[in-house]
Amino acid sequence: MLQSYKYTFSGHDSFQCRLLWLKKGYDYLREGRTFSADDAPVILGVGNNMVRAIKHWLRAFGLLDEATDQPTQLADLLFGYHDEGAPFDAFLEDNATLWLLHYQLVRTRFASTYWLIFDEFRKRKIEFTREDYGRFIEQKGREESFTVSPKSISEDFGVFLKMYYRGTSERGTKVKDREDSFSGILTELDLVHSFPRKNEDGKSEISVYVITPSDRDDVPADWILYCLLDSPSIGMSVNLETLENDPGMPCAVFGMNRAGLLRKIEQLVSSHEFLTYNDQAGVRELQFREKPADKYQILRNYYASVHV
């Protein structure tokens, strides 16, 4: 039986999330304001459509509670002053924070394109075009009885590219300036690459995109642990195949290969006494001797270590 999800391919008004939008939106809400207020565009210094986009991205990254329209605990930890001290990384200066936000974007499933691409689509199509993704969504719509216009699919895919793909300048060099107001906040992760391919007419070229699995050395090992503690289906042990192949698990979300995953597991076992790895008699499992009750403590420990 197919699992049913709510599919959303809009809400961003074709705006990718910009570098400072999440903090800007968070601060605005913590001042006791609402996005529906008439003066929201004036206070935020953006147009009406960008106000909607900021709210959309806060929700998509799991930083805004859908029921209350208030910041989540994670948002408070990242951007606000709280009982434990200063914000973890209010201006997103640590690439580890970008990886955490990327995980959140895939994990929340609020914006469908992101979890669909990382958890499912790229397993079917290692190399893909905008048109390939469009056909994938159309087929999925037929299978699961939902409809979305080809224009919406194409526009949403375009926003996905702006979020992750660095692109090139007019001179053909990669765009590197994170402060560029047109850059998506996750381009620094360098997850999505592109190369040209001849079209069927043999004359024009089309862009082909690929998310190539790698060791992901810049993903903190503790993000793997956070991912497991954030997954209700994970019990006191999880096998290597699940970590490597299942939707929502590290290799799918982070585009990580087995070598990188095993290295992260080794780092986790060496630094946490409550973890052990069993690789005997065909059993390959990461096991909890004791499972931490608070997933956010993993984040607290990481940011405390890097802020020393």
Order of helices and strands: HHHHHHEHHEEHEHHHEEH
Query: Tell me about the biggest sheet?
Result: 3 strands, antiparallel
The rough form would be described as globular
Got a strand count? 6
Domain DUF4007: 9-303
Protein name: DUF4007 family protein
Organism: Hymenobacter negativus
Task: Provide tags for this entry.
single chain; 308 residues; mainly alpha; 3-stranded antiparallel beta sheet; 6 strands
Can you put this structure into words, describing what you see?
The chain has 308 residues and is mainly alpha-helical. The chain is built from 13 helices and six strands. The strands form two sheets. It has a three-stranded antiparallel sheet. Strand 5 and strand 6 (283-288) form a beta hairpin. Helix 5 (95-108) crosses helix 6 (112-124). The chain starts with 20 loop residues before the first helix and ends with a helix. Mean pLDDT is 91; it is low at 168-181.
Q: How would you sum up this structure in a few lines?
A:
With 308 residues, this protein is mainly alpha-helical. Helices cover 44% and strands 9% of the residues.
Lay out the secondary structure.
Elements: H1 21-30, H2 40-44, H3 48-60, H4 73-79, H5 95-108, H6 112-124, E1 127-128, H7 130-144, H8 150-164, E2 193-198, E3 205-210, H9 221-229, E4 237-239, H10 240-245, H11 250-254, H12 258-271, E5 275-280, E6 283-288, H13 296-306
Antiparallel strand pairs: 1-3, 2-3, 4-6, 5-6
Helix pairs in contact: 1-3, 5-6, 7-8, 9-12, 9-13
